[in-house]
């Protein structure tokens, strides 16, 4: 917020939202607005800022002046003390302030990730490859590794390896006796993964299964390994998630975890106007998990969204 002369300037970064329960016009009243630019659009209680750079440096700055509105302004200011948050829209949630991960804030999160050097190198090598956006983010990998550590997991499965970023993060924290079954159908990306398992000195922990993940999981079950795994991570063909989940639920022991990536699908799951097959499939699977009493669940808005399921 900037204070200048007798005017009060409301500064919002691009994409900032105001809590829907505090529509500015309603809160401040029309008399507060001496000049409300047409570049503002208030919809669903949020101010949608259209990009127009005014006189402020480094921020998208939109100013409107008003007087005699200090008390109301204070209310607004309290709920908008930093522009980098959104507030849950429903009063039933106690007007909880929920962080909105802007690029600047996400940079900050990444600066607070302890990414092992070998993972950084793998990420860098993968960056120039086709599909590099598929790998989990460093903060996601760190969470996966921490879950494995908290569980004291020894036996893990990953469905969808690509060049190995998440599997390497898991293998790095497994004990020497640990075992990770890594399922991937693409030999070329697996070559990169195997190179990094080698470089990191964890090859002996990783059992690479080249082929369709369904076949690999079914053969583990046929091999009598049901109930013997502690942790599984699903990050492959999204429309197959439910099938992977059912097989992994057999393979994981009671108390073990199954983590599913991309459950928010770039936000499309929450958009009723999106009806493409992948979105529908992820949305339906999320709903099924919500109702599935065989597992406890926690949907975590990290990366593209991960749901952590604990087998009960
Ligand atoms: C999102 S990427 C995995 C990213 C990886 N977890 C990481 O963090 O780098 C998905 C991978 O799943 C693989 N995949 C897709 N369908 C598969 C299937 N049916 N069986 C095995 N692998 C599959 C793709 O080849 C791709 O490499």
From TrEMBL:
SUPFAM superfamilies: S-adenosyl-L-methionine-dependent methyltransferases. The keyword Methyltransferase applies. It holds the Pfam family Methyltransf_3. Transmembrane segments: none annotated. GO terms for biological process: methylation. InterPro entries: Cation-dep_OMT, SAM-dependent_MTases_sf, SAM_O-MeTrfase. CDD domains: AdoMet_MTases (cd02440). Keywords: Methyltransferase, S-adenosyl-L-methionine, Transferase. GO terms for molecular function: O-methyltransferase activity; S-adenosylmethionine-dependent methyltransferase activity. Belongs to the class I-like SAM-binding methyltransferase superfamily. Cation-dependent O-methyltransferase family. Methylates caffeoyl-CoA to feruloyl-CoA and 5-hydroxyferuloyl-CoA to sinapoyl-CoA. Plays a role in the synthesis of feruloylated polysaccharides. Involved in the reinforcement of the plant cell wall. Also involved in the responding to wounding or pathogen challenge by the increased formation of cell wall-bound ferulic acid polymers. This is Caffeoyl-CoA O-methyltransferase.
């Amino acid at each position: 917020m900037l204070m200048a002369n007798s005017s009060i300037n409301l500064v919002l970064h691009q994409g900032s939202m105001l809590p829907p329960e505090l529509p500015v016009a309603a809160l401040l009243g029309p008399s507060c607005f001496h000049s409300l630019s047409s570049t503002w659009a208030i919809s669903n209680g949020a101010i949608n800022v259209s990009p127009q750079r005014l006189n402020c440096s480094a921020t998208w700055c939109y100013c409107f002046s008003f007087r005699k509105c200090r008390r109301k302004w204070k209310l607004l200011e309290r709920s908008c003390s930093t522009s980098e948050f959104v507030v849950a829209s429903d009063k039933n949630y106690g007007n909880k302030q929920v962080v909105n991960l802007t690029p600047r804030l996400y940079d900050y999160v990444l600066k607070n990730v302890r990414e092992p050097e070998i993972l950084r190198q793998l990420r860098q090598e993968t960056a120039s490859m086709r599909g590099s956006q598929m790998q989990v983010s460093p903060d996601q990998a760190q969470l996966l590794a921490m879950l494995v550590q908290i569980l004291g997991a020894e036996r893990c499965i990953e469905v969808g390896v690509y060049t190995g970023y998440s599997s390497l993060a898991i293998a790095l924290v497994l004990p020497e006796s640990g075992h990770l079954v890594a399922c991937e159908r693409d030999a070329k990306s697996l070559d990169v993964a195997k190179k990094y398992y080698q470089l990191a000195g964890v090859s002996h922990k990783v059992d690479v299964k080249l082929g369709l993940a369904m076949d690999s999981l079914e053969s583990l079950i046929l091999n009598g390994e049901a109930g013997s795994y502690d942790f599984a991570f699903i990050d492959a063909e999204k429309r197959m998630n439910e099938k992977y989940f059912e097989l992994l639920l057999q393979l994981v022991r009671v108390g073990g975890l199954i983590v599913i990536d991309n459950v928010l699908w770039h936000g499309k799951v929450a958009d009723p106007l999106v009806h493409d097959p992948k979105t529908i499939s992820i949305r339906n699977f999320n709903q099924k998990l919500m109702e599935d009493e065989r597992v406890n669940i926690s949907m975590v808005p990290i990366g593209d969204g991960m749901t952590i399921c604990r087998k009960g």
